[in-house]
Specification:
Strand content: 25-35%
Order of helices and strands: HEEEEEHEEEEHEEH
Number of strands: 11
Number of domains: 2
Helix content: 10-25%
Number of helices: 4
Length: about 240
């Protein structure tokens, strides 16, 4: 073997050694990265925006793998955790689902019943009333006699909304007095007396309106504030 051949062999051996060293370096880096990242676990993220108080279902989420050490303790690990849940806040597409982002759907308490009525979409809801909200329910009545004043009554105070349906058109043959062309079925959780008041209002009131109660508000209107007439307003000198 001449000197030229020997140099070639040496270069070949050096190249092999360098390749082995490079491979060992890559393996070491990958091993170190894996040791830092740790094992991966299942989590879930949203595939679409979810408005607040809307139902969560498996159709709106996808399963992903996330390093366990990077996953929050509150992350949802099982789709069963979403059963019967609603979004507690507006959630954006791509959001990692966590238990503090969801809440239980409002449920009936002992002594309560569900009752649903149609509310004018424009005057009664305006997109702000959602399941879990609390509202005051007002009804306005025409006077029975010409000498009697028209009046507005607070029929139910602090009623709990448990469901809001989809907007649909009114049948104008039976709902001619409605202010808008569309309405929304609102379901409330009420006791027997309040359910009767709401049923009466829907049947005989000119209009039924909802007023959203501020979160944390615990006061109830005084008896004197539950009925309003324009004459009474004038008598107190507060009419403008």
């Amino acid at each position: 073997m001449n000197s030229r051949q020997r140099r070639g062999v040496v270069l070949l051996v050096v190249s092999v050694l360098c390749a082995v060293a490079a491979f060992a370096g890559v393996v070491a880096v990958v091993s170190n990265a894996r040791s830092q990242v740790g094992s991966k676990v299942t989590a879930y993220e949203l595939t679409a925006d979810v408005p607040a108080y809307s139902a969560l279902s498996g159709a709106k989420v996808r399963r992903i793998s996330v390093p366990k050490r990077w996953l929050p303790d509150t992350a949802v690990r099982d789709l069963g955790e979403l059963q019967g849940k609603i979004a507690a806040v507006p959630l954006k597409k791509g959001t990692l689902l966590q238990s503090d982002m969801v809440a239980d759907r409002p449920r009936l308490q002992p002594g309560q019943m569900e009752i649903a009525i149609m509310i004018d979409a424009e005057t009664g809801v305006a997109g702000k009333i959602t399941p879990g909200a609390r509202v005051n329910i007002f009804a306005t009545f025409k006077a029975r006699r010409e000498t009697d004043p028209d009046l507005s009554k607070l029929m139910v105070a602090d009623a709990q909304v448990i469901d809001v349906g989809q907007i649909k058109a009114f049948d104008k043959t039976t709902d001619a007095q409605r202010l808008s062309d569309q309405g929304v079925p609102i379901t409330f959780a009420l006791d027997v007396k309040d359910a009767q008041r709401i049923a009466f209002s829907e049947s005989f009131a000119v209009h039924v309106r909802l007023a959203l109660v501020a979160p944390g508000e615990t006061g109830t209107p005084s008896p004197g504030d539950r009925t309003y007439t324009l004459n009474g307003d004038k008598d107190t000198g507060s009419a403008r």
